[in-house]
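FORM 7B: Structural annotation worksheet

SECTION A. Query
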Amino acid sequence: MELTENKAGYCTITYKLRLYINHMDFVKLTKNIYNQVVLFYYNLLLENIEFLNLSNQYCLRELEKITIISRNGDVPKNYLDMELPTYFRRSAINQAIGSARSYISLLSDYEKQEGKKGKEPSITTEFNCSPVFYQGMYKELKKDSVMLKLWNGYKWEWFKAKLKGRAFDENLESMSPTLVINSRYVMMHLPVREIVEDVRPVKERMQDENLRVCGISFSNTDNIAICTILNRNGEFVKSKFISGGNYYKFQTDKILKQIKKHRQNGKKTLDKADHRTYWEKLNRIRQNTAHKVSKEIIDFCLENNVKVISITKLEDDVVGFGHKVGKYSPITLRRIIINYLSYKSFRAGILITTVRQNYTASKCHKCRAKVKRNESEFSCENGHNGNYYFNTAMNIGKMCLKKFGLILD
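SECTION B. Predicted structure
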């Protein structure tokens, strides 16, 4: 799933659903026609660049005037001689408008350059866009099925398709789906609009008297994520250690050993099919683990009335925090976990803020003295000791409170 935030009180979640249909050839025919129409209007726009000075809505109207037979039967000069549903044509026109605007913008930037560095933008001669189905092109949308209007080579006809994937609430407002066609299967990307009750920015939330902030650190141990909750005064409230790192490593190591075994049997490199199969298995394990960890973090925050999550900036992250780790070690899940957290937290009314990594791991969260690390434990010169990653999570939470002036250090 993907999320688009909106401060108007809702967010748009894009569900990626696997589509099963008996007539895959009709889906491909529909996509081919869609791209032919996009190319037709794209070329027409480049011949009538003045249309691009209009808004998308008025630009679409002008294009329809010069390509569609009028009500009194007059055939325009640029007549589009295709049998198309109105909303299918309009979807293609909007795609063409976007592509034409992009080309004109890139060309304008190129011509403004001194010395004309780089390659000059070229006019697109063939499109491979995924068709967007406006209302009228789909109906009876349910969490496990949908009716699609497709071109069967002779006429437009309704076909039922099954859907499989993460369930969505049928009562929520759905928007225009997109059919993404691969060589092996078809995915339907369905945007769904959900209401978000609390859309206040982080700065405003930090003024709450009952504020609670959750600092999160990530480790390369069995505890993938360590969460610590602090109140607005920087006092510890509760913590949670989210395990699963050892099992994740066991699963990935098992597949990596299978790959190594293939190579030992005389294969210097893996066949394309073998490589794809193993990669998909590793990717599924990676995604499933990240979903599980991110869900546990959100559930923990909701149970304890947390409105702000604090993490270190991704660009500051050194994989393994200075320690050499494998590509499929638990710490490398950090980036994908944060990606999943970004949409799950917003839907739950929680916002994520970032702090710099400076001193979050090297100082004691109690006295700010420099710490000594011994594997997963820490100690400082003032006698404080404990879990190294817990100490880091506490510092991350305190850095957030300091960032907004609630505590001095």
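SECTION C. Observations
The chain has a mean pLDDT of 87. The chain is about 35% helix and 25% strand.

SECTION D. Sign-off
Analyst initials: ____
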